[in-house]
Amino acid sequence: MPTNEDLIDKYMNARGGRLVPGNDELARTVAYLKWRANGNIDVVRQTFPKLPHIHFDIFDSWDANAIAFKYGQVYFIGVSRGIVGLLGVMFDRIMGDKSLLDFLGDSSKERESMPNIPLGPDFVNSMKEVEIFGQPIDPMRHAVAQRMKDLAFDFVFAHEFAHIANGHLDYWSDRYGYSEIQELSESSKIANVNQNWVRQVIELDADRTGVFMTLSSELGKVLGHSSRPAEPVAGLYDLPSIILQLWCISVASVARLFGDDLLEAEGSPIPLYPSWRLRSIGMQRMAHRIVRAGDFPTRLKWEDLNIPDSILSSTYHYVEEIFSKISGMPPVTRGLLDATSERGWKRTSQLDEIWTKLRPDLERFAYVALHE
After folding, report:
1. Which of these, 56, 89, 91, 230, is most buried using a 10 Å CB contact count?
2. In a 10 Å sphere around its CB, with 0-12 CB exposed, 13-18 middle and 19+ buried, how is residue 279 labelled?
3. What pairing do the DSSP bridges indicate for beta strands 180-182 and 54-59?
4. Is the Cα torsion angle 94, 98, 102, 107 positive or negative in sign?
5. What domain of life does the native source organism fall in (predicted)?
6. Is the pTM of this model over 0.85?
7. CA 350 to CA 62: how far, in whole Å?
């Protein structure tokens, strides 16, 4: 009888196999990410002890993809080496640029020039013509780059975790017969309009969970409810505005990696995935709820942290400047304008209504409390 590991290997082998590190540095990175992922699961399990056992690994694909799947009662989360690589390069490039976030550390120590990176969801195409550059030189900026990588990875992981913990995967399997949810390359599988609406809603719910898990963790460190990272970053947690800004850049950059996509044209079929720009707006809304409305275990209020009311929206706009700077391309915001237009808000309202109707069905499969 095949073991759980055998089942996971069979699934992984069809997607490039588990990543086998070819050098000590990569081995340390893989071990570290597994430690972070399993630690996140353990933290949630303390509150929700009925959470099933969830396996985690990194699969050997250069696409920026992530997957949640089940086989019987075996649950698994996989993140591609491509997305790990993209996050590493992106934040090293940001913090290695002396003109970006120059109030952190001593930016004058950084290199005089940095290569442009045409970032996108394919690591190979993003990096194939880019000259090699190192990590940030200044110790503080080097540490901040690592912290941003951690936050971005935690968001990607939490999104996939939500597909299991929030009942998405079990509902998807029970209702439609699919045993996996992945972030790329499923568009050809499903053409049913109702299924596509449901899928868009659960993707947005997974984004909300990713925001909640990562941002509430950061605020917990600000308040001293959980341990802070080591110095030199630890001292930044006495500056809530800086922590919120770094969180926002880390998470918004994940969405921005996937481009400036528009909503589908009027009369076109509903796609399987919501537009990334619409998702980014939803993530921003959830962040406002957590901090400003007190949607946080301590009932924390915005004014208690002395954070300017505009910091989230202004930081999201700053991410556009960052991507323009590191890519060497003019800002591209058609999709952003589309998502915040009357058409975009109408779509958001439609998805909110579908979520309200779907939530009771998902609760039958969920292992944790669902967002309203």
Report:
1. 91
2. buried
3. unpaired
4. positive
5. Bacteria
6. yes
7. 34
